[in-house]
Amino acid sequence: MAKKTVRDIDVVGKRVLVRVDFNVPLKDGVVRDDTRIRAALPTIIYLRSQGAKTILTSHLGRPKKQPKEGLVMDPVAARLSELLDVPVKKLDELTGAAVESVVQQMKPGDVVLLENSRFDPREEKNDPSLAAELAGLADVYVDDAFGTAHRAHATTAGVAEHLPAVAGFLVEKELEALDTLVTSPGRPFVVVLGGAKVTDKIGVIEKFLDVADDILVGGAMAFTFFKAQGWSVGTSLVEEDEGVAVAKRILDKAASSYCNLLLPEDVVVAEKAEADAETKVVKADAIPDGWMGLDIGPATAATYAGTIMGADEVFWNGPMGMFEVDAFAAGTKAVAEAMAQCKGMTIVGGGDSVAAVNGFGLADKMAHVSTGGGASLEFIENDGVLPGVTVLQDK
To answer: For FRET with 40, which of 88, 100, 299, 303 sits at 20 to 30 Å CA-CA?
Structure first.
């Protein structure tokens, strides 16, 4: 994955448009979790050290293609200013005369943040006119938003058609870590997949059946596999019809694959998905009527942990159960702890898995924690081909 980075191009005194992923949670007008902002700091700090004029653009939330007061970028600019310890000027528009005027007056080392890119309906359409307007603000384009690299939007792909386009340090780190998964994973290579929907992960499961040694399945998607085998699932969350059909297809393919697809042997069940619910552990093929599976059971957790700790490389995407509730968190915690103890390369693939390792205080024990859940899965499924990556210059 030999893409040029910001180190490989002259940015001294240049206007540099950087696509960052500042899609962070807000509460009462304040950033609740600044992880994604911190992830972009190395690139921004480097650009400032080179005397570049840094113009940042990002989306925030799902504003339905029009301005929404609760999704303006002001709180993000305020937090970034604190982290950089320099003023960050937040602009009230994405493009236009007012933006151009501010950019023209920027001095080396200055940082500005444009308004939420999704306030402009042209963003998600990858409209050439918006891409051209954004490109007109800068001399160089840097993509440092891996979490949006699977989307062909104006700020992630379109603008790169007009400017020299390179990767930021975060994207470089992501590509280096994930590239090994599709080119030369360490052996044994273990994949842990959880979450709700089999159909969301069908492509990546089929891909891993060809390259992994073991796939460990947990989360609600396990119950769809149970249903596909005719097992009793009680009131567990099941992806009916298409999901069951997909699960059957995957089970058939796994039967003729050298990859070992493991399903839970026991599960933690309750009559309701609440913290005070009565729980019990039952065999995976014998969930009682009126009860729902909410976590993998202790025997499964022990089996999965042992497999993980014996791996040379592990990729994990998706929790093993409803980990937000303590009563159903043991399986997810067991996976996280096993990865923390694994001597091999451990990669956490975004989304709820990242929230889990952060919540358990184990994120710093992982070799790599990806900032892009959907992007990491599509990267693997498509052999590294993503709209926001292919547009970057090759070394």
So the answer is: 100
Among 125, 197, 283, 365, the active-site one is 197
**CATH code that applies to domain 6-172:** 3.40.50.1260
Range of weakest confidence among 87-91, 242-246, 303-307 = 242-246
* Active-site annotation holds for 219: no
CATH superfamily of 185-381: Phosphoglycerate kinase, N-terminal domain (3.40.50.1260)
Instruction: With beta carbons less than 8 A apart as the criterion, state whether 319 and 218 touch.
Output: yes
Per-residue model confidence as pLDDT tens digits over 294-305: 999 999 999 999
Catalytic-residue membership of 38 = no
Catalytic site residue 201? no
Q: Spot the catalytic one: 219, 351, 372, 388.
A: 351
pTM: 0.88
Report how far residue 330's alpha carbon sits from residue 307's, in angstroms, rounded to the nearest whole number.
17
User: Has 384 been annotated as catalytic?
Assistant: no
Q: What is the C-alpha separation between 16 and 55, in angstroms, rounded?
A: 6
Gap between the Cα atoms of 342 and 54, Å rounded: 40
186, 359, 374, 384: which is the annotated catalytic residue? 374
